[in-house]
Design brief:
mainly alpha
């Protein structure tokens, strides 16, 4: 039994050693910062605004935090547009984009639930973990496999982290504006939609979808400002 345990540990160590070796070898090709293109710098802009949002959540300013995260969303959309426009699309860039999406959409969603909706710390731990777990797995798959495609158009495999973030945001507005809604109901709805991120659902990339997301963003910004300044 002990030999099996030692063998398992040795296998894990060998795997980590191999990964470290690949990282060292890749770094020899040039400085990591030097490999960043214009789209990657836009992605880092999204990371900056996600961090601003995190700080604002910690300071008890959820509405301003949401607006900061929307800044991250805009930079995230810009980096994809720029990459396609300039032909900078690559697995390297997709990996950076997925890494930053963890903070822009997943961590910010977990913080939003924790600070404004969670009825108990256990609920916050469970909901936040489910969001991060399924969202993280979804992004790992996208980095490795990219988009799907058929005769109609290209598509995301599974719902996206943006979809999940929208559900969390919708629950925030429901709790703020609709009295019967509460943190338990919000938690259940959020947990229920998270597995869809690792499903085989096809989320097609369409112009109509982009305009719908933009419209929802404008509505969300207006609601945040109205709540912040006491209009609602």
């Amino acid at each position: 039994m002990m030999d099996e345990g030692l063998s398992t540990i040795r296998g894990v160590i060998d795997g980590l050693d191999g990964r470290a070796t690949r990282v060292i070898e890749s770094s020899r090709e040039g400085n990591m910062i030097g490999r960043l293109g214009g789209a990657d710098w836009l992605s880092l802009g999204a990371l900056f605004w996600a961090w601003v949002g995190g700080v604002l959540f910690l300071r008890g300013e959820p509405n301003w935090a949401i607006l900061a995260v929307f800044g991250g969303f805009l930079f995230d959309k810009l980096d994809g547009f720029y990459a396609r426009w300039t032909g900078e699309v690559s697995r390297f860039g997709r990996g950076i984009d997925s890494f930053i999406d963890v903070f822009v959409y997943l961590v910010s969603a977990a913080l939003l639930y924790h600070f404004t909706m969670a009825p108990h710390s256990v609920a916050s731990v469970v909901v936040g973990f489910v969001v991060l777990m399924f969202g993280g797995l979804r992004l790992v798959r996208h980095t490795a496999e990219g988009f799907g495609g058929d005769d109609e158009a290209s598509y995301y495999v599974g719902t996206t982290v943006v979809h999940t973030h929208v559900v969390v945001l919708a629950n925030y507005f429901l709790i703020t504006l609709v009295d019967p809604w509460n943190g338990w109901l919000a938690g259940v709805t959020i947990v229920a939609v998270c597995p869809l991120m690792t499903s085989q659902y096809r989320a097609y990339k369409t112009d109509a979808g982009h305009w719908l997301v933009a419209g929802l963003g404008v509505v969300a910004v207006a609601l945040c400002l109205a709540i912040e300044f006491g209009a609602l």
